[in-house]
Amino acid sequence: SGADGRKRRRAVSVEGRTRAAAVKTKAVIKKGKVYTPSKPQAVKKKLVLLGKRGAAALASRRRKPHIVRERPGCVGLVLGQAPPGPRDSLPRGWRPLAGPAEQRLAKLAGMKGPGEFWAEFDRANLLSWYPGLKDRKASQDVKKGYKLHQSDGDIFPMEEARRAAATVDLNRYGCVILLGNNVARAFGVKASLMEAEVRNGSRLLIFPHPSGVSHFWNEPANVARASRVLRSELRAMDGAAAKVRLVGGVDLARAAATAHTEQ
Q1: How far apart are CA 174 and CA 7, in angstroms?
Q2: pLDDT confidence of 155, banded at 50, 70, 90?
Q3: Which terminus has fewer CB within 10 Å in the chain: N or C?
Q4: CA–CA separation, 99 vs 114, rounded Å?
Q5: Terminal alpha carbon distance of the chain
Q6: How many angstroms separate the Cα of 144 from the Cα of each of 55, 91, 137, 140?
Q7: Which among 193, 52, 64, 201 is positioned nearest to 185, based on CA atoms?
Q8: For the stretch 57-84, what's the b/e string if a residue is b when 16 or more beta carbons lie within 10 angstroms of its beta carbon?
Q9: Are the CB atoms for 83 and 59 separated by under 8 Å?
Q10: Res. 109: pLDDT tops 50
Q11: What is the phi/psi pair of residue 31, to 5°?
Q12: pLDDT exceeding 70 applies to what percent of the chain?
């Protein structure tokens, strides 16, 4: 009947559009336009082998973290672990925490985008070089049915990290956000996650790493708490900056710590 014919034509049309969309998606993926947070297996194998060379072979001669400043006079500093890959694998002009990590930080802070966030914070990775990928345990073999997580995380040589931490001048910052427990350990911070330790007037805040690898962000309650904590630190930094403008030339770190205590 005519109705049956129209149904068949609609089904063929829908099937055709579905196939076209699938072909288009494959083409986009082939061009590398789709963000994939997990490294391809072939790349992972190379990065695991790289890590097995050890810190002595991979470490940069520059131990001091390279701090990127978008504008002078920032009261805050954000410190990550290390670059996400070897230098020759990073895009030209790459900066620490670029991409999803900085987007999450800006969103948690209630800002329009990363540009607004980096107007308040300097940024750096504690290690300026990539230390390699952790080797996956036999019990976590995907081929054997392991499905809990697909990222093994990067190696973090604590001895090298502590040496790098010792070179950072914390006194110039009111708030230093340490992304992850490894970075906090490198500075000898004893506080718990999303709590701060005050050191010579600087607040050292332990914050979960904002990348999608962390399972912390799977819980809405964790996201809400992280947002509250980050916004509280920003208010303290604003208070410190206001004090500097009023009295002219006081220590920024000490002013920020005082402003947070008075909240």
Answers
A1: 67
A2: confident
A3: N
A4: 9
A5: 76
A6: 31, 35, 12, 8
A7: 193
A8: ebbeeebebebbeeeeebbbbbbbbbbb
A9: no
A10: yes
A11: -80, -5
A12: 60
Question: Residue 82 in contact with residue 125, Cβ under 8 Å?
Answer: yes
Tokens of 177: 């956000």
Can you tell me which residue has the tokens 């980050």? 230
Distance of CA 199 to the CA centre of its chain: 24
Beta bridge partners of 205: 177, 196
User: 14-33 burial, b for 16+ CB within 10 Å, e for fewer?
Assistant: eeeeeeeeeeeeeeeeeeee
pLDDT digits (tens, 9 = 90+) for 114-154: 999 999 999 999 998 888 786 655 555 555 554 555 556 77
* pLDDT tens-digit map of 35-91: 344 554 555 555 444 444 555 545 555 678 999 999 998 999 999 999 988 888 889
Q: Are 227 and 194 in contact (CB under 8 A)?
A: no
Q: Find the helix packing angle between 220-247 and 100-108, rounded to 10°.
A: 70
Residue with tokens 């002009």: 93
